[in-house]
Amino acid sequence: MSVADLFQAELKAVNLGLESFADNLRQRGVSVVQMDWRPPAGGNIAMIAALDRLALNPKIDIEAANAKAVQRMLKGKPMLVGVGIAKDVVPGMRPDLILHSGPPITWARMAGPMRGAVIGGLLYEGLAKTREEAEALAASGKITFEPCHHHGSVGPMAGIMTSKMPVWIFQNETYGNYSYATFNEGLGKVLRYGAFSAEVLDRLKWMETDLAPVMKKVLAAHGPVDMRGILAQVLQMGDEGHNRNRAGTSLMIREFAPYLVMLDEPKEKIAKILSFLHANDHFFLNLSMPACKCVVDAAAGIEGSTVITTMARNGTDFGIRLSGLGDQWFTGPAGIVEGLYLPGYTAADAAPDIGDSVITETAGIGGFAMAAAPAIVQFVGGVPQDAINFTKAMYEITLAESDFYKIPILDFRGTPTAIDVRLVVEKSILPVINTGIAHKEPGVGMVGAGLVKPPENCFQDALAAFAEEYTAT
Amino acid sequence: MSVADLFQAELKAVNLGLESFADNLRQRGVSVVQMDWRPPAGGNIAMIAALDRLALNPKIDIEAANAKAVQRMLKGKPMLVGVGIAKDVVPGMRPDLILHSGPPITWARMAGPMRGAVIGGLLYEGLAKTREEAEALAASGKITFEPCHHHGSVGPMAGIMTSKMPVWIFQNETYGNYSYATFNEGLGKVLRYGAFSAEVLDRLKWMETDLAPVMKKVLAAHGPVDMRGILAQVLQMGDEGHNRNRAGTSLMIREFAPYLVMLDEPKEKIAKILSFLHANDHFFLNLSMPACKCVVDAAAGIEGSTVITTMARNGTDFGIRLSGLGDQWFTGPAGIVEGLYLPGYTAADAAPDIGDSVITETAGIGGFAMAAAPAIVQFVGGVPQDAINFTKAMYEITLAESDFYKIPILDFRGTPTAIDVRLVVEKSILPVINTGIAHKEPGVGMVGAGLVKPPENCFQDALAAFAEEYTAT
């Protein structure tokens, strides 16, 4: 076709970018195809350069490294294997160490709910007798604060774990590594939301003296529980394994009940435990979290992999870690959750985003599997179609689909698994996280639930550091 | 616009009926709007006449009668109130009476699975010692066969109830009426699928001596269970209350477990019961069925109402009853179920459609709520979108939407409730039923599950009879 032909033939345009250009042409009767296109990395020159360097001049085969990380994430088989006391089983745990959710943080920078939970933890341990004593001790430098994630552990919301607390023990059957999490306390006034009243401490004590020892015996009688099988089922029962856990809790109760009955324990004690589980649909959260943790941990530390193996928040910072960059954290400010508030509370009461529960999204369930749990919008806000759209968007930033976790309404498509930080930055699509909302002051508790976006800079910073590390010189 | 204008202006057509007419016009460049239209009642002249007579010359205010029936169906509150022995609690029950599913039928016309279950029932009652004795007794005229539905009861598949069998007792709290159903035996070799081996009879005996008395005590301790609340929940957990009952069974276990533990019973007995419930996801079916039965029964017998208050099959005939025509049955041949077969079986092994479980669809759940249970297609065949489409189609033939049973994926729309026989006939849209498939021979059991269409003639016959009864002369 000559140039002359071009001006004689009917004009057919393909438009990239701003749709208003296409609209102008259409108004003049020109046939236009609008391409859904945005500039990579939102046009951020430094990020485009980093992506280019990694694409054109990598020091290592990134795709091969990611294939290995993906393989490890897809093949991980989380088994609930036992119950122990933190100081006996969690690596490095000791009485003057307090584990918390999210990336590392000092007492001085801790958000209200985390401070409240630390106070509660020190009271629970008997290291302080009053709130004031606990605050003084926490500020004294005599207590060490470290992330749960540094000790193979995860904790919802404040995520406080102290040495006497009982923990669930998980093992990744495929790769052998372990993970740990405390027991879920229920809703309302609970330590993980920063409450530390006598009611909270009494419950923690009962969990230590009654609930955990009984659960330990039940697990010994039952044998290890295949949590991958349970998680696969809950996704067919309206749960997503993070904020909707009614099916998961129900399945654990029916799994354990026949063994609970057979224990040599007073029946009042067993009945109280069954009533406690029945009254707390989030019982399952503290099982789905360590199940995810031991799976993603097996995909960590793979040289050259851009897969995100940690996302976590401490109420002040949101942080991520990449498989190929070891233990290095990349952080940004924790966001404010948009969602539904309990009666009497508003966004003005909310603490910023907090907790390790985003381990579920990191492993490909939770917010990433919201399409399996459309009823969750009653808890976190929005309409059912949003839940489907969130899941669909997450396929854009992940490298694989689960072989086990399937979403019926998406024709049993596997959940989006293994987030590639390059895709997050290139497409400017941030991971979807659904979460609870804590009151910003210590001692209050839960005020709502909703959806939150992580800060974009931590993904960009991680990509920049990765490009620095892995571009050939 | 003059006729001359018409032929000069651009032609714009609206096409009713056969779409090929529209296609022809489109091929000639004519703008066509295709209306989704079919002749009423598929063009059946007698049915159109019946519908017209009822519309133009009714003897009674049909809409007012239906409003009353709908109100009763929407306001019914099914409560599980107790456990009893059939002969003690089911109205009219006696040792020489056997209740069965579906419309009335004689021994001579019974399908294989129902004969098998009758044989099992007579062996269980001690009225016969061998299969041959049982068959001779069943054929002798000394045993009376009547539908469960004539005794306030419902039974899945063969639906056999004999005098010694334990039954769940339901009461419609709003209207006071009662309903009954036997206990679910689990899957595989079970009486309701026509099996009657020693294994089947031993299990029935254990249910009589152990399971039912314990459940009776549990209910006494727990108090009545609000089954409307439970059903509302299961629809948000991937169940539809007919063939997918994993959530329902789980919720009942967690509801009962704390009370089971506290009973003054050997713990081995309690553990065996909890294991039995855990191993049988259809435990809940025999609770959802009588829950639906006591609700639709309250809407029966309303003069002038075209609402369908019974659909049921005995393996030979499919039958319906209308609210405004009392106890009169309208029947047609039971269909063959299209679905998925267990390994080793094919459609050639299948008995025709059987069971009272279509009471769930009659009440607006089950197949009518399939959109809430997309994972069910793995059990009954098809793809998840089919499940959504089936539910949407049922809004076409129902008069109301449930205030309690909501479907998350349809933006929490209430389930389609109260089938109007006029709409079924006028639109030629038959109720969607999902169901299990029994082997056609006595003694074998379940061979699969799927979807089945009821025979259209019973709806047409019912409409004709209704028009006869309710047209003013």
CATH class of the largest domain in chain A: Alpha Beta
Structure classification of chain A: alpha+beta
The portion of residues assigned to helices of chain A is 25-40%
The chain pair forming the largest interface, with residue counts per chain, is: A-B, 40 and 40 residues
Strand content of chain A: 15-25%
Q: How many E strands of chain A?
A: 17
Number of H- or I-type helical stretches of chain A: 17
Unreliable stretches of chain A, pLDDT < 50, 5 or more residues? none
Instruction: Give the name of the CATH architecture of the largest domain in chain A.
Output: Alpha-Beta Complex
User: How is the CATH topology of the largest domain in chain A named?
Assistant: v583 fold
Distance between the termini of chain A: 45 Å
Tally of individual domains of chain A: 2
Brief characterization of the structure:
The structure is a homodimer of 473-residue chains. The first copy, chain A, is α+β, with helices and mostly antiparallel strands and 473 residues long.
Q: Could you characterize the architecture of this molecule?
A:
- Two copies of one chain form a homodimer.
- In chain A, a hairpin with a 7-residue loop joins strand 10 (317-322) and strand 11 (330-333).
- Helix content of chain A is 39%, strand content 20%.
- Chain A has helices spanning 3-8, 19-27, 45-56, 62-75, 86-89, 112-125, 131-139, 198-222, 227-234, 246-262, 267-278, 285-297, 359-362, 377-380, 384-394, 421-427, 456-470, and strands spanning 12-16, 31-35, 78-85, 97-100, 144-147, 166-172, 178-182, 225-226, 308-314, 317-322, 330-333, 338-341, 354-355, 398-407, 413-419, 433-438, 446-452.
- The longest helix of chain A has 25 residues, at 198-222.
- Chain A folds into two domains: 3-37, no CATH class; 45-473, v583 domain like (v583 fold, Alpha-Beta Complex).
- Chain A has a four-stranded antiparallel sheet. A four-stranded antiparallel sheet of chain A has the order 11-10-9-13. A three-stranded antiparallel sheet of chain A has the order 12-17-16.
- At the A-B interface, helix 10 and helix 11 of A face helix 10 and helix 11 of B.
